Amino acid sequence: MDELIFFINRVLISGTVLGSIYALGAIGITLIFGILRFAHFAHGDMMTMGAFVAFVLASALAAAGVVLPLPMGFVVLPVAMIITALLALGIDKGFYAPLRARGAKPVTLLIASIGVTLMMQGLLRLIFGSSTKSMYVAGESKDIFRIDMSWAGGTRPISITEPQVIMFVVTALIVVALHLFLTRSRLGKAMRAMADNAALAQVSGINTALVVRVTWVIAGSLACVAGTMLALDVALMPDLAFNIVLPIFAAAIVGGLGHAYGAIVGGFLIAFAETLAVFNWTAVLRPLNAILPEGMALPANLALVPTEYKLTVAFVILVVTLLVRPTGIFKGAST
Amino acid sequence: MALIELKHVVGGYGGAPILNGVNIAIEKSDIGVIVGPNGAGKSTTLKAIFGLLKVTGGTIEFGGENIANSLPDRLVPKGLSFVPQEKNVFTSMSVEENLEMGAFTRTDDFSGTMAWVYEMFPVLKEKRRQPAGELSGGQRQMVAMGRALMSKPSLLMLDEPSAGLSPRYVIEIFETIQRVNQEGVGILMVEQNARQALAFASKGFVLAQGQNRFTGTGQELIDDPEVAKSFLGG
Fold first, then answer.
1. B contact test, residue of A35, A185, A200, A334 with most B CBs within 10 A
2. Residue of A nearest to B102 (CA)
3. Which CATH number fits domain A2-129+162-324: 1.10.10, 3.40.50, 1.10.3470, 2.60.40?
4. Is B24's Cβ below 8 Å from some Cβ in A?
5. Which residues of B touch A256 (CB under 8 A)?
6. What are the residue boundaries of the structural domains of chain A, listed by start?
7. Contacts with A200 from chain B: Cβ below 8 Å
């Protein structure tokens, strides 16, 4: 029983946390690709920027002496999402829109987004310094819920932190809201129409400039949620999400570029694959030692790959997907 | 006053002009058919009306104003609709969602228009939850026309509606076009099946090298020996 509890704590919970973050980031990347047809490399830094926006707001609240039962980072999230969405619109207007107006190729936009990445990281370092910060600005404690498992014969509890619980709830709410938006609302359907066939969307009289703005608002606000969650789970630093932008891209591609549900599935798939690959299987298989013959025992560490190589797992999955099903799990745009 | 009137329209994609003075006038009661050899500027004329390429000379009057170089999101609410020849449905979206996209510019209740489209194409009502990409060529063409009709246009433009369809569907699509016209929608279409289309056209335009070569009623063009010889294959 303890082995199962260990597995839940180390794989199920941390995989879901990482999957939520990957999924929210990948949704933005996939939507931007679907509508604007370019790989938005600066998306990781948009997540970091969102986390810093939440950090500033949370610090301001804490400085004002506000004391709340929830982590401050979550409380300020709605406002931080709006601000990050506005910043995303500004970045588009300042850097990408002028290039689109000149008919720039997708690769030009990709390079421009790498420039935006460097610029944003530089700005964040300039303003906040390069040190690691805690999102728990008011010194809130990370409450840990321990679910006693003694009734099932476990000696250790299933433990999950309060921020993790809120993360699951927030991600679930966002996924449901996004689904309803894309399938029920006029603008959401117009977004799918434009991702499906931009020329026909234009011919139908769909206001494509409006759809582009809505895309940036959604991508920016979800990036803010993902970045803030990541900072709450780990810590806040200027290269926070830059380090995970590649697995997030892998998630979007594995799911099928341009396909929002694919991005969600891809995000969780990559996250669980990474978590399972670095999981020490000896912890679960230890009871086998009792039945193994004398002299044979499981090694102390039986992980598929060492933790340092966690990122490679994402790329192995990416390569396999592209070989077997080049358009991703859900048939996405291939170009 | 004509529903739409093109006066000496010149235009192209930036290089040498493809249209060198096209004149077309259509009434609300008309079915206008543009025929001509490949590269004559037939499709280009429709695209020029719809703001999809640059008009550098002449005027396009629709509803009493010059609409040359207006973009579709302005033209659709004015009553202009366009069915492109290829890629004219949203393949990943359901039939009903395709129709809804045609009504994007409308702010009023469009359920009556949707019922009208379903009444015209009963098979679409059956398949309304199915992705348009799974339908046959003929059914896709119906979705494309239905989508264009959802904005309640006064002029419907179709680019080769019969292209790639089996003879049975060609007849069905042509019959539907005449029915739409009888319900008060002006039609302007480009057709490869020239003789068949001119037979029911109230106005025919033969274009060659971006200019009008012959203009008349459909029957006049069919009966004209020179048109028949040069453009209708004898």
1. A200
2. A204
3. 1.10.3470
4. no
5. none
6. 2-129+162-324
7. 84, 87-90
Question: pLDDT grade, residue A333 (50/70/90)?
Answer: low
How many Cα atoms occupy the beta-carbon half-sphere of B20 within 13 Å?
12
* Residues 6 or more apart in contact with residue A218 via CB below 8 angstroms: A27, A28, A31, A85, A178, A181
For residue A304, name the pLDDT band (cuts at 50, 70, 90): confident
> Shortest CB distance from B102 goes to which of A197, A199, A204?
A204
Indicate the DSSP class of residue B131: B
Q: What is the mean pLDDT of the segment spanning A101-111?
A: 94
- CA nearest to A4, candidates A277, A286, A284: A284
What is the DSSP track for A81-111?
A: HHHHHHHHHHHIIIIIHHHHHTT--HHHHHH
pLDDT of residue A335: 39
**Domains of chain B, CATH where assigned:** 1-79+188-234 (3.40.50.300)
Per-residue pLDDT for B205 more than 50? yes
Asked if pLDDT for residue B157 goes beyond 80, the answer is yes
Q: A205 vs B72: CB contact, 8 Å cut-off?
A: yes
What residues of chain A lie within 8 A of the CB of B84, using their CB? 199-200, 203
